Amino acid sequence: MTIWEKVIRLKSETTTRLYEPAIHFQKVSYKVKDTEILKEVTGSFPKHRITTLVGPSGAGKTTLLKMCNGLLSPTSGEVYVEGLPLQDISPIQLRRQAGMVLQNSPVMDGSVYDNLSLPLRLQGKELSEEKATDILNQVGLDRKYLRRNSRNLSGGQQQKVSIARTLLNESNILLLDEITSALDPSSLREVEELIRKLNEVHQITVVWITHNLEQAKRMGHYAWIMIDGQLVQTGNTSALQHSDDPSVERFLRGEFK
Ligand SMILES: Nc1ncnc2c1ncn2[C@@H]1O[C@H](COP(=O)(O)OP(=O)(O)OP(=O)(O)O)[C@@H](O)[C@H]1O
């Protein structure tokens, strides 16, 4: 059986569902000098689902996320994106396919239109105003924002512009690193609703690093818990309720961050 043919068995309360992986890690390790940051991680992020990735600070979550779009390569092991080994996908294709949004995604001084059109301009292409408006509407911002200076937008609106920028690439995987941790509660809810809509309506696969366990339970279909460079627990969101492993249980009870 090839990796691609493997499926994730997800035990829900009443049924067993089969999920196809969007991204699969096979014994992935990552070392910097003598420090092992990821230790033989094997597991998958299911396609068309939201996976929340939680764990104490320094667990290796961001390092792992950066492997999903080729910003980092494993020291050993293999990463498969939609069934293809990472090294068989061109970097440009990979960045398009898997868009990343960070806690403070860079927005440059200039209009929202300038920010949206920059990636295309770098490829020598034009972004039509119609397409820009359409994308803005998809993230819940109307046409009037096109000419607004991005720096004057609220944190939540800036995050929406960053998400819109990845949608212009027609990414089918969204990699989110703490995208709501700097937002006020109402912007946080708006961004959560947007991500849920993109997942439900456009079937975008989402991998979401969050320090907020309640958010992970609220938003995820599937969860990964990492501690000290290892994947220690995975499964549907009930994996975030309880663990037989004492160190995971301590993390879930908030006893170490
Ligand atoms: N290039 C590097 N050189 C040395 N150490 C690194 C490097 N990149 C990451 N690390 C270390 O690897 C560990 C994991 O880092 P990573 O940012 O992936 O953790 P994280 O789980 O995302 O943490 P946080 O939740 O605090 O963002 C940390 O101890 C970090 O200091």
TrEMBL record:
Domain ABC transporter: 23-253
GO CC terms, sorted: membrane
Keywords, in A-Z order: ATP-binding, Nucleotide-binding, Transport
Family matches, as Gene3D superfamilies: P-loop containing nucleotide triphosphate hydrolases
Lineage: Bacteria, Bacillati, Bacillota, Bacilli, Bacillales
GO molecular function, one term: phosphate transmembrane transporter activity
Superkingdom of origin: Bacteria
Record-given protein name: Phosphate ABC transporter ATP-binding protein, PhoT family (TC 3.A.1.7.1)
One example of a Gene Ontology biological process annotation: phosphate ion transmembrane transport
Name of a matching Pfam family: ABC_tran
Organism, as annotated: Sporosarcina newyorkensis
Transmembrane segments: none
Keyword ATP-binding in record: yes
InterPro entries: AAA+_ATPase (IPR003593), ABC_transporter-like_ATP-bd (IPR003439), ABC_transporter-like_CS (IPR017871), P-loop_NTPase (IPR027417), PstB-like (IPR005670)
